[in-house]
Amino acid sequence: MTKTSAINRIHELLDDNSFVEVGAYITARSTDYNMQSQETPADGVVTGYGTINGALVYVYSQDASVMGGSIGEMHAEKIEKLYSMAMKMGAPIVGLVDCAGFRLQESMDALDGFGKLYVCQAMASGVIPQIQAVFGNCGGGMAVASEMADFTFMEQDAKMFVNAPFVIAENDADNSSAEYQAKETGNVCATGSEKEIFTEIRNLVSILPANNEDDMSYSECEDDLNRICTDIENCAGDTSIALSMISDDSFYMEMKKDYAPEMVTAFIRLNGATVGCVANRSEVYTDGEKTATYDAALTAAGCEKAAAFVNFCNAFEIPVLTLVNVDGYKNCKCNEKKIAKAAARLTYAFANADVPKVTVVVGKANGTAGLTMNSKSIGSDIVYAWKNAKIGVMEAAPAVKIMYADEIAKADNAAALINEKAAQYNEMQASALAAAKRGYVDDIIEASETRQRVVAAFEMLFTKREDRPSKKHGTI
């Protein structure tokens, strides 16, 4: 077993002295293009199993020093066998990628290897967590494989591409960079140094279920379940801070933070259990200073990001918490092209999920955008609202201008009439109390009590069972 960056990465990721290699002596068997004279130790990929914080994981690490880490017949077969073992044992699989693509010298055999790898990933999807981290290159078909994983990370200097950047005629920016993949495409959950990426993976494995049936992600909670979250009402704009405040010991792990930042997707811990969180975000605070603002509106990118996250949580029986502060859909031509389908997919993801679902309206929940954000109407089990929340069809002033257009046109003091009718509208149709009276909100709570109320709700929902129509799968 050669000591290369591939094996060193495995040792850095796993618990000390826990790695056991499988298939160390396998090499390429192709003889075309004088391949018999080419040394291919382990055929360019180290495969095996070990532990992360004591939990079993399977891991493969591609070796760029062997034909650029390219995938050939035996290279792919080693990964396929690893997937088979991981599926049998019900344990996560982690891929450490450094691959130039498929091996040209092995032609159709290499392509077939890619195809079989894709099938393994498809069969494992929703059964065991699949995590990939890109170091060096992730080219061609391997980029597709990375996007078939549940979570993909990139080392800050790595490259990921289907078409190499230099073959794209109008390529003004390096569309293969980690920064581009994280911010512009949403293909990557997080970027950082090699050490930072390994820390992210270890943290992720420690909070995820091992598979879709055997949940070993629970831990003892030493944080006060009734802890009051003082000043949390000031975090209605930056819900990432609110989520960290209510989480056990402030544990907070955000996925795809740099992509569609107006929508938060993150994991927290409540009473020792992992909870997936989706939340609208209109402000970003860093070290107490506001560093960014966004419209309180749904975007196509944000909806797609959240839908994929909810689907993952549902597949692995992870409860979902939603913090709502949305006023409608983002109003621009670019967003209008995709928002209907994207919002439909998010609505479907929430409605289809049968895991425990709790929603807290922390600001506004207006119109069908508010419905999409895991409302009572589409199946949330428990809906709370902070006392100053606004829940309705739209903002009071524009609603009044539509409903009382004739009266306003004839009024001597139109502004006074609008203010009067708007106050009535807010009280009758657009407040947390009005929604609660109609049964769309289960309780109006003090913001500071959010942690204890949400923890209690999920504890009550722990044994939730919900029958659904028999079908192969949905099509939205």
Give a structural overview.
The protein is of the alpha/beta class and 476 residues long. The chain folds into two domains: 5-207, 2-enoyl-CoA Hydratase, Chain A, domain 1 (Alpha-Beta Complex), CATH 3.90.226; 232-395 and 430-460, 2-enoyl-CoA Hydratase, Chain A, domain 1 (Alpha-Beta Complex). 36% of the residues lie in helices and 22% in strands. It has 16 helices and 18 strands. It has helices at 5-13, 73-89, 107-124, 141-148, 178-185, 194-207, 239-246, 300-315, 333-336, 339-352, 367-372, 396-403, 405-410, 414-429, 432-437, 450-460, and strands at residues 20-22, 45-52, 55-62, 93-99, 130-139, 151-155, 159-161, 190-192, 252-254, 263-270, 273-280, 283-286, 289-293, 320-326, 357-366, 382-386, 390-392, 443-445. Strands 1, 2, 3, 4, 5, 6, 7 and 8 form an eight-stranded mixed β-sheet that branches. Strand 9 (252-254) and strand 10 form a beta hairpin. Helix 12 packs across helix 14. The model has no long low-confidence stretch (mean pLDDT 90).
Provide tags for this entry.
single chain; 476 residues; alpha/beta; 2-enoyl-CoA Hydratase, Chain A, domain 1; 2 domains; eight-stranded mixed beta sheet; elongated
What is this structure, in a nutshell?
This protein has 476 residues and is of the alpha/beta class. Helices cover 36% and strands 22% of the residues. It has two domains: 203 residues, Alpha-Beta Complex (2-enoyl-CoA Hydratase, Chain A, domain 1); 195 residues, 2-enoyl-CoA Hydratase, Chain A, domain 1, CATH 3.90.226.10.
